[in-house]
Amino acid sequence: RQLVFAAPQPTAPTAFKLNNVSLARGNHQLLNIDQLAIVKDKITLITGPNGTGKSTFFKALTKLIPFRGQINYQGHPINHIKDRRYRQEVGLVFQRANDQFIDVTIKEELELSAKNGHHPYFKAHLQDALKALGLNNLGDRVVYSLSGGQRKKLQLLVML
After folding, report:
1. I need a surface site. Which of 17, 43, 90, 102 has the fewest CB within 10 A?
2. Which residues contact 34 (CB under 8 A, 6 or more apart)?
3. Is pLDDT above 80 for 115?
4. Residues with Cβ within 8 Å of residue 120, at least 6 apart in sequence
């Protein structure tokens, strides 16, 4: 069975628009993007062989590395949006969960996330989310002792 998806309409609202963006690692040019629109509230697949700049692309979108050109987020150049406000809406989940954790225990990771986060749902429903993910009653566990799936769940919860 073949799945068919319609391309988004040119007038669809965008989350990101890139114009004349170039990304390099050292002297090696990775990406040159004349124009790219990432449609809001839709899934976008970014694919390519290793070393072609996919991770670098996401680091540029999250303001973790410099870039040339213009990247707009919801109509505003990202370099004009204050970092704190931008990071409340745009985040990056690392491919390897261990690279993302800073503290040792689940409780410490969640406390750090709560201190820096402002999402009202998680302030009121964190315990419900932990229970739904099977992470409740594990607060004193060392993050690195969790299974890969448990670490990924914690990683997503911390980012949210």
Report:
1. 43
2. 19, 20
3. no
4. none
Which one, of 47, 76, 46, 49, lies nearest residue 63 by Cα? 76
What distances in angstroms separate CA 73 from CA 30, 118, 123, one per listed residue?
22, 20, 26
pLDDT band at 109 (very low <50, low <70, confident <90, very high): confident
3-state secondary structure the chain: CCCCCCCCCCCCCEEEEEEEEEEEECCEEEEEEEEEEEECCCCCCCCCCCCCCHHHHHHHHCCCCCCEEEEEECCEEHHHCCHHHHHHHCCCCCCCHHHCCCCCEHHHHHHHHHHHCCCHHHHHHHHHHHHHCCCCCCCCCEHHHCCHHHHHHHHHHHHC
Instruction: Assess whether pLDDT exceeds 70 at residue 131.
Output: yes
Comparison of pLDDT for 79 and 53, the residue scoring more: 79
pTM above 0.85, yes or no: no
Question: All domains of the chain, ordered by start, with CATH?
Answer: 14-89 (3.40.50.300), 97-159 (no CATH)
